[in-house]
From TrEMBL:
Keyword flag Transport: yes
Coiled-coil residue spans: none
Topology of this chain in the membrane: Multi-pass membrane protein
Organism in which the protein naturally occurs: Spirosoma validum
Membership in a protein family: Belongs to the TonB-dependent receptor family.
Molecular-function GO term, any one: siderophore uptake transmembrane transporter activity
Lineage: Bacteria, Pseudomonadati, Bacteroidota, Cytophagia, Cytophagales
Annotated protein name in UniProt: TonB-dependent receptor
InterPro entries, alphabetized: Beta-barrel_TonB (IPR000531), Beta-barrel_TonB_sf (IPR036942), CarboxyPept-like_regulatory (IPR008969), Plug_dom (IPR012910), Plug_dom_sf (IPR037066), TonB-dep_rcpt-like (IPR039426)
PANTHER family reported in the protein's UniProt record: HEMOGLOBIN AND HEMOGLOBIN-HAPTOGLOBIN-BINDING PROTEIN 1-RELATED, TONB-DEPENDENT OUTER MEMBRANE RECEPTOR
Subcellular location: Cell outer membrane
Amino acid sequence: MKTIYIHILFVVFLSAVFSSTAWAQKTQLTGTITDTETGKPLAGATVILKGGKQGTVTDNQGRFSLSVSDASPKAITVSMIGYDRQEVKLSDNQGLAIQLRSSSEQLDQVVVAASRVEESILRSPVSIEKLDARAVRQTPSANYFEALNNLKGVDMVTSGLTYRQINTRGFNSTGNSRFLQLVDGVDNQSPGLGFSVGNLLGVSDLDVESAELIPGAASALYGPVAFNGLLYTKTKSPFDYQGLSVQQRTGVNHVADPTGDGAKLFSETSVRYAKAFSNRLAFKLNASYLKGRDWYAADYTDIDPNTNPEQRGANNPGRNALNIYGDEVAQTLTGIGRVSRTGYAEKDLTNYDVYSLKLNGALHYRITNSIEAIYAINVSQGTANYTGSSRFMLNDFRLTQHRLELRGKNFFVRAYSTAENSNNSYNTRSLGQLINRTWVRDLSGNVVTPDKADATWFERYGAAFSGSIQGVAGQNNDAARAFADQGRYVPGSAEFDQEKDRYIHIAGLQGAGVLSQSKFYHVEGLYDFSSHLPAISLQAGGNVRYYAMETNGTLFEDKVNKVRVSEFGAFVQASKTLLSDKLKIMLSGRYDKNQNFAGNFTPRASAVFSPNDAHHFRASYQTGFRNPTVPDQFIKLNVGPIIILGGAPANSAGLNAYENSFTSASVGAFGAAFGQDLAAGTPFPQAVAKNKDKLVKSNVPYIRPEQLQSFEIGYKGLLTPRFLVDLSYYHGQYRNFLINQVVISPKSDVLLADGSVNPAAAADVLTAANRQAFQLYTNAADRVSTDGASAGLTATLNRDYLLNANATWAQFNILDANPNNIPAFNTPRFKTNVVLSNDRITDRVGFSIAWHWQEAFDWYGTFTENRPGRIPSYSLLDAQVSYRVPSLKTTLKLGASNLANNYVVQAYGSSAVGGLYYLTLTFDELMR
């Protein structure tokens, strides 16, 4: 089943290619495009043969060349951002001289993602932002992905050079499974992680044509992952963007690093080559390689929850430092108090010399002027540090994708596969704890086995503190720690490095390694019936997805019983214009079915009222849902005192965890009361009988999708031809959030036939051998809501200056919900962006400057067991100045990301990210 869909599409692909007709007689269409007012050549203008897909773009001298057949339509469409679109009739195919006039097109772009059809951004039924190729070229940020942070409503968490995570409208995290990222329609998520790894894997800046972003639910058109929003990145066609482009970016970071480390070099090399033959066959190749020293997670704040805040700090014997690992292991010693083991700093356990390698190739064949077949392969590999339930090193993490597509003017059929390879990745916190258990000596000086190491270390500490060890001062915590640490492997030593490497390559509970070679396969299609239905516009589509998880028993119980999950979805969308094209009504509906959940229907309804071409009012009702990831459904990890159990019914078969268990809180209350009575002399059976009714049978439902309903109103209008305002307000209601719940399952039935608590089950929970603790994946019935508003201003000023400014407000309303049942909102109330740019101050000089500010807020994450960590308010200033040498097709850019070098932590426990200063040299479309 896992390959049948690709095989079917491959047959269709080959049949279409080999059934195509012979190529017609070709002639060459050439010309130049210039600015009407200045007469200067326009680089990057798009030239498309009317009625087909054939096209090209102008070079740095404003010149273009396009191969056309005798049968081709005799007209071309010429467009460029910031200029009026123009249609030119062809009476002579030689030496065209075309002039474009400046206009507000920068303010009225064409978008696709909002409705899955081309439409004016002014008449989009929902909020949408767009970053085009011109903006990518001008951004002062180090790459296009980072530049997304300047778009309205975006929240971005930067964990390091190679890992950034994007989100919109709250419930933010460093691994965001609620936000869909597509590259040319391909889901960029990792099958095992269940989310996209940001900018680590994906597309090179040289190949980005545009990026469209929808803040808010897009499930009605894109399915379960688009719960909080969608990023759709489109790459450059090899027909339109030909030639060789080379970009070298060199820079430094760690300037004035608070850790005391000196400045480090950063380098990124990108190459793109594309070639078209007779406007029928074209290919492109991309390669990008980035390397540098990542920023450090070096916050040693004592966060031990069992120590009073005023007693925390470097001198606390029970210290649990945020970015030191191994010191989480602690005990309360009689006569001493709380004591933690000596841990290892993250910098000694992880790899901060990171890299990102992105390789891409694509072959395009135009069967006719309107039907195109595409095969593409993407291979990405890199390293990154990210914060989840622990700190993880994604080491040599690889994602391989194949895409096969047939696309026409009103349809597409697409099949792709995604495979990950995680052989060298590891859990940094676990690594510190494991190394700590390899060298501990008993009181006789003999190294003990790892299973006895922690208890022996605390025994040594207690003996030294009590004064029982000759030559060691008693009642001295420092002396006791030094004695307990005798034999400790020092970071950088041969013994330390040997144990570190050994545990990295042991996957599962016995080591720190994270193994996954999981895959998923996806087939989808869409057809636009609008040309056959003059009264309405109608689109319909659907998809099938199949997950094949492979962890060799380290995360799932999949050595024998393989974890396989299939799902499908289908949608239909209809729209109609009324009132002389002033009112546009759109209705969408999608049905999705995962094999482990009931089917889910997500509708969307919207209306756009445009009293004239300048002013547009919109209102929409949107719904979203999110299927639990495959790990949420099927993880089965026995960590000793507790089994972590995914919430799919099949995953817990025979364990009775959901059906036959007590709540953890009631077991605690029962145990305390039983213990008091037993100490007072009550016999065991009577003490059980007296207190058994304190036990409460758990009622944990199997896992199911999260749900969202959202209402949005907005206005987008041209107050003048050069002045655009975009306003929006939304209200969202959420339910069925995914949570974890701990239960205790006894061997006996928890209830008797009459519904009362079984005394035998009550006795079971008092004995470790007769009970099992489970951490179950489930959903909370609690409801919460969010509200938000945003305002954006875009102005094209005199002399080609462009101003973008936006501000966003977001509010979380917990209502009557239990805070323990709701994922962290992790979003500042206020944030704002201002970008001022001019690509042509002179013929050769351009610049851009961007300012971002956001308010302080508390970050909650599983890394700190959902205890809050403060993220202070901060501002970032990015800037660049560019210099062009048209004769050499070369641009030189000097820039800085975080120019003021503010070391900022954007997720509690993650790295403090400072400035990046760079020089970029770009040779564009050589050998064209």
